[in-house]
Specification:
The protein has 390 residues and is α/β, with parallel strands linked by helices. Helices cover 29% and strands 11% of the residues. It is built from ten helices and twelve strands.
């Protein structure tokens, strides 16, 4: 019986440096009897020669399109609209393309189409028309329903990092938007922390020598833990970090404690609607101190979003968006980058891939292994929701 082949494609999303398969986990899968093809990529955080040294077969970028149908295509972010044209930040599908190429392979990726996001039907229908399958990473779960792999910790870490950089920049360069935060400038998490410390060392003296006051909502989860750890690593005293979770937010906002902080980091994604944590009205009250909002959960189109202050995503190129409110407070900005962990791509990829590895090792029996059976069942259920499928 021929070994199962996994084909790691090159990411097309701008500044997406993460990967679901690292050289370390590539070797583990090869040792388990799999065959691994890795597309060459100049944007991936790991070098091509690292995969080659692990034993993978290097193949041309974009060659997944012509791979044998039984190959399983691995990636991270959703595919571009036109199989091979790089996507611009957070454009899932180009609305001007009337017909999108059908997909005939099984794909492992974050599809961003099961919650009926914009153009979800166009994307999902590509699999239905091509006879392919989407194993959406967000919906790979154990029998209890818990996700087998997630980037939550590093999303929180990176979301706090950009928030601290933005706060410092507001003090050192008032009235000037935070310039591009380029993930390629930070080879490691330690490099990022050093950069934050340098920025804070220039900004804190301009803030009456006081560190920023930070409120992290969802502080007990993986995402919130990452946010708190980043603040502490950057030198913010724990006494300056207000850690809130379900107990503090159960009644719903708005909360005056958020307006009284310098930085608000939201690490909660809600599936039900509650009174928002903040509103434009609550932030227009006299005495507001808040300067920076970092919504790590980052879902501006969701009606359940507890931070209803923005309608679009920011990017690493343009990391902050202005928040227009009344009142006497300082200028305020929003951070809503939808692939924050790319800022710490090395550590985030290694952690994520190790979490995913046990499930990947079961791919050769995906018709019998629960995690893959559940993922395919969800795919089939969502396909039935496509317009015209009944």
């Amino acid at each position: 019986m021929a070994p199962t082949t996994l084909h790691l494609r090159s990411e097309t999303k701008y500044l997406e440096r993460r990967t679901p398969l690292t050289p370390t986990t590539t070797k583990a899968l090869l040792d388990a009897g799999y065959h691994i093809n890795v597309e060459k990529s100049t944007g991936r955080v790991f070098r091509d020669d690292e995969y080659k040294a692990a034993g993978a077969q290097l193949v041309p970028e974009g060659s997944w399109v012509h791979a044998p149908k039984d190959n399983i295509i691995m990636g991270l972010k959703e595919l571009p609209a036109d199989d091979g044209k790089p996507s611009v930040p957070h454009v899932v599908l180009a609305p001007l393309i009337p017909r999108l190429a059908p997909l005939e392979h099984a794909h492992i990726q974050f599809g961003h189409c099961y919650k009926k996001q914009e153009n979800w039907d166009r994307y999902l229908s590509r699999f239905a028309r091509g006879g392919g399958v989407l194993y959406d990473i967000e919906f790979l779960t154990d029998p209890s329903g818990k996700r087998v792999a997630a980037f939550g910790y590093y999303a929180g870490f990176a979301g706090a990092a950009v928030a601290l950089l933005a706060w410092a920049h507001q003090l050192t360069d008032p009235g000037v938007a935070l310039p591009m935060v380029n993930p390629t400038d930070y080879p490691s998490q330690n490099d990022l922390v050093k950069a934050i410390k340098a920025s804070l060392s220039r900004a804190v003296p301009l803030n009456s020598s006081q560190p920023p006051r930070i409120i992290v909502v969802g502080a007990l989860g993986r995402c919130g833990t990452g946010a708190v750890d980043c603040c502490v690593a950057a030198g913010v005293p724990t006494s300056s970090i207000l850690k809130w979770d379900m107990g503090e937010t159960a009644a719903g906002g708005p909360f005056k404690e958020i307006a009284a902080s310098d930085i608000f980091i939201n690490c909660i994604y809600l599936s039900v609607k509650i009174p928002p944590f903040v509103t434009r009205e609550s932030l227009s009250q006299p005495g507001r101190k808040l300067r920076v909002v970092s919504d790590v959960s980052c879902d501006p189109g969701d009606p359940n979003n507890p931070v209803p202050l923005y309608t679009e995503y920011s990017t690493f190129t343009k990391p902050t968006l202005p928040i227009e409110v009344n009142g006497d407070g300082p200028g305020m900005v929003m951070i809503s980058i939808d692939h924050l962990p790319s800022l710490v791509a090395n550590e985030a990829s290694e952690s994520f891939s190790q979490l995913l590895l046990p499930s990947l090792k079961a791919l050769d029996r995906k018709d019998k292994e629960g995690v893959w059976i559940r993922a395919e069942q969800i795919f089939c259920e969502k396909v039935k929701e496509l317009p015209g499928s009944n």
